[in-house]
């Protein structure tokens, strides 16, 4: 997160870190993406977090794939690491355009019922332009690979679709699609999600409205962050679990 401030995960217990020490090792507990709990045994994240490009192989080969909850500081011995039993990638996800960038993870153990964040349905006031929103993550704080150890959050605004289209008209930097994305930022730049925050939550009015997905750089003026819009995916998120990890992979 660029331009953010430290926050305690106790105040936003639905924010989780995706981890694989096997793949990502190091001093940051193997954190590689963010996520958000939407039910006691269910987390949503960005589909691109599960891509071979990010994972270095197929998701089913990530043997120590865990969700870290209740841990503000990645080096601290606190919270819980819960194994991921299975993953469902949104069948409408289009890696070429980033449309529908969402996947569901099934957890082997349940989180407390109060540690989940409901998603905002279509038409919810939380999507209205100008709404104050907060993005959370352990990602890059500078745009130069300075990954955080502690959870951070930045305050941004939901932007009008016209502004998002103007920023991303479909050139080399990508195309904004109002049906499947929401964009947020501040016009002068300096507050944004960045690499490593992907899959983490954008929250407005106490509802989940987006997942960190893509953008042109981090924190640049006139380059808002682009988020997966939750409303069109609520039915997919609520589908019953598919069962075994093999079946889900
Ligand atoms: C990334 O590379 C990434 N500024 C995530 C979010 C944004 C840009 C890049 C938005 O994962």
TrEMBL record:
Gene3D superfamilies in the cross-refs: Trypsin-like serine proteases
Protease as UniProt keyword: yes
UniProt entry keywords in alphabetical sequence: Disulfide bond, Hydrolase, Protease, Serine protease, Signal
Pfam families found in the cross-reference section: Trypsin
InterPro entries linked: Peptidase_S1, Peptidase_S1_PA, Peptidase_S1_PA_chymotrypsin, Peptidase_S1A, Trypsin_dom, TRYPSIN_HIS, TRYPSIN_SER
Keyword set includes Protease: yes
Ranges of residues in domain Peptidase S1: 1-242
Top-rank lineage group of the source organism: Bacteria
Family affiliation: Belongs to the peptidase S1 family.
Protein name (database record): Trypsin-like serine protease
Organism of this sequence: Streptomyces bambusae
